[in-house]
Amino acid sequence: MEKGRITMTSVQVGKEDGHDGKGVAGPDGSPPPEAAAQGENQGYHRALNARQIQMIAIGGAIGTGLFLGAGKGISKAGPSLILAYAVAGVVIFFIMRALGELLMYRPVAGSFSDYAREFVSPFAGFVTGWTYWLFWVVTGMTEVTAAASYMTYWWDIPQWISALAFTIILYGANLISVKLFGELEFWFSMVKVTAIIGMILICAGILTIGFSDAGDTASVTLLWDDGGFFPKGIGGTLMTLQIVMFAFLAVELVGVTAGESKDPEKNLPKAINTVPVRIAIFYIGALIMILSVVSWTKFQPGVSPFVAAFDEMGLQVGAAIVNFVVLTAALSSCNSGMYSTGRMLRDLALNGQGPGIFTRLTRNGTPLLGTTFSAGLMLIGVWINYQWPGEAFNKIVSFATISGMWAWIMILVCQIRYRAKADRGELPHSTFKAPGAPWTSWFALAFIGMVIVLMGIDKDARISLYVAPVWALLLGVAYLVLKRRNPQGDAFSKKD
Known about the structure:
mainly alpha, Amino acid/polyamine transporter I, about 70% helix, globular, transport, cell membrane, Putative proline permease
C-alpha cells in the first residue's frame, strides 16, 4: 500500500545519513510512522522552540489580508463582516485540528504533499507539493513588492531597489539557520500583535473615556445603526467570504515547521489549540472595536481600516505606525514564503517528484538550492511589477487564494482517510484527534466548496478560476513526462 512506499523511501534516506530508522513495524509490515518521520526530517535541525512556534502560528493568521483587505470587506458587508470572520474562523479551526491529527500521527517537513501521497495518490502529492510551492512563490512576489511600495511613504527611492534589498536580506536570513528564520518571524509577528492590541486598547479608551475626535459619536450601536448589521444583505456578507478566507491563508504554515520543531508533540498541539483565541482577539475583537468607534460607512476598498480609523479619530501619527506594521506584515509573509518553498521542493525531490538536486542541505540544515531557486523566481515579481504595474500584476496574485485553499482541501481529505484507516486498525490512532471528525472535516470541505462557487460569481476573483485549470494541465503533463521516464519508480506507483 502507499504508506509502505513512502515510509520505505523515508527510512532509506535516514540510512543514507547514518540512521537506521528502527522501530515497531506497522500492521502491514511497513516501517512505523516514527521511523518515517525520522528519515524524512533527517538533516533538518529541530531549532524552532515553543516561543517561535507560537508566534509563527499567530503570524500566519495575521497579515495584509487583515490590515488591508478588511477595508474592502467592510465596504461590501458592513458590520456583518464580523460574522463572516467568526464563521470562517470556526472552519479554519476544523482545518487546523485535522492537520494537527495528521502531524501527531507523523510530524514531517513538507507535510501537506507527503500526506496527500500517502492517503490519496502519488499524483495528489505531486500536485499539492508544487501548488503549495507556487502559492508561496506568487505570494512572495507580491509581498516583497508591496513592502517596497510601503517604503515610499518615508523615502522617495525607486521601488525595485527596496524590493531587491528586502529579497536579499530575507534570503540570507533563511540560509543562515532555521533558528534565525524563527527569530525573525517571532519579531515580525510581535509587531503585528502589538499593533492590533494597541488599536483595541485605544478604541476601548475612546468608548469608555471619550477622548479623540471620535469620542462624541463612538458607541457599540454603530454596529447596527447605519443600515443594520447586514446593510448590504446576506448576499453581501457571503461575497466577502473569499476575502476572509484569503486573510487566513498561511495559518497552516505551522505544519511545514513540523520537521524542525523542538518537541513537536507538545508545541504543535498547543499552537493549533490557540487558533480560536487568536481569531477571536485579532480579527473579531479588532473589528468590533473599530466599527464601534467609526461607522462602517467611513471605510473604503484599498484603504487599511486601521489607517482610516486613526484618521477619523484625529490621531494622524497612527497612519505612519500602521504603514510600518503593514510593511512588517508583508516582510513576514515573504520570509515565510522563502522558508516553506525550499522545504516543499526538498520534499518533492526526496519522493522522486522533483529534481534530485533540491535534496541537498547545508551544514546548518537549510535547503540551499530549493530556497535559492524560489527566491530567484520571486525576483521576477519585481520585474513584472516594473513592466506591468496595476491590474496585470494584481491578476497574478488572485491565484494565491485558490492555490492556498487546495492545501486546505488536501489536509481535510487526508485526515478523513487517515481516520478511517485508524478506525479499521490499519494505522495507529493519533495522539491529537480532531474533535467531531470526520463530520467537521466534511463541513469544512463543503464550506470551501461554497467559497469557490462564490469566487466564480465575483468578477474580481473569477480570474483565479481561469488560471487554476491551466496550472493543473501543466502539472498533469509534467507528471506524465516524469512517469514515462521512470514508469516503475516508487514515486509514481500506488500499492494497495
